[in-house]
User: Fold these one by one.
Assistant:
Number 1:
Amino acid sequence: MANSTASRWMLYTIEIKDEEETIKAVKVMNVGDGKERELFRDGEKKARAPFEDISLLVGSKPPVLSGNGRVAVFSLSLGEPANILDHYLAVVNTDGTNFQIIPFPIKALEGKDLKSLEFTGGDWERVSNYAVSSDGK
């Protein structure tokens, strides 16, 4: 939970079960009045190149809320057929505006001695940890 000048906020991931499948969503709730907003739901957005037409899913890492309660950050995974866990980072204002998807391409690691880090396969390109500043910038 994070403090805001007006109230306290809670950011969480929820599983939604229907008759055939279970999907996940990221929601934010104003603890003071109980109002909640859904920020993202499995499959509502598609990935960009080179993964066009592959659905984005809520990732495996817990979502993080800025100290002022205005910005949420969470990981996104690629759905079938790619099935790549935590490949993107989503950054969105908690009012639902300014939704950004940040990729972490392999180019970011060019020049690193990956063998010394024991990275041997091509499927490890994923977000492992993240944080957000108090003001969400």
Number 2:
Amino acid sequence: MSLFSLLILALFYYLRKR
């Protein structure tokens, strides 16, 4: 579950940084 959470967080950050 930790990996999944990190993946989602990274995706959110990527979209936000965009």
Number 3:
Amino acid sequence: NKHKKIFPNMPKYYKGYILLRLRETGSEWKVVEKVRNLKSREDDEDEDWYVFYCTPIFGSWDILLEICLSKHEELDKLKTFFNIDEELSKMIEESITFISIKNNFDATKIKSQNLYYRAYVLVRLRKIGLEDEIVNKIKDLRSTEYGEDWLITYTSPIYGGWDLLVAISFSKLNELDKIITNLRSENELSTIIEETTTLVGAKQNFKG
């Protein structure tokens, strides 16, 4: 694991997500290289966070950061860093954040050594109160047909304007529409989902 400091009494993390919109296209990888290895100091016993994954994305935003953190408030500190860093503040036009309601992500588990594309599906429900039921229905779904290779790596209720976030790792870009269609239809979710939006990693470089 690239992050060695895991509190013994806090083996699981909240997941935070920051979406960035840049002032100009073409600087996506420059921003990724600058932020992808950010983490709390090893000698800081009050904070435990690190950037788990960062990628340019297709969609209405330019970059997505996926962050593991032990406390909700650590996400705001990281977002503040973008404003005070002179180089980043000039490149970033806008940002929004989402964070999981529960600290239920085990950062020590790697599911696979294959390289995947990464997609994030934000879900808004017609009725609140069904979040945990949906999570339990879909959290362990993965491909079962020959020639397909995809799995849901994380799903959680979230704060931040949407109700759920589903993270999917998949091997072929042309599989994604089928995966999302199946999620909605085969698991009887179409009647309770009001809206979804999908953010897709621009490169096949996610491990696990």
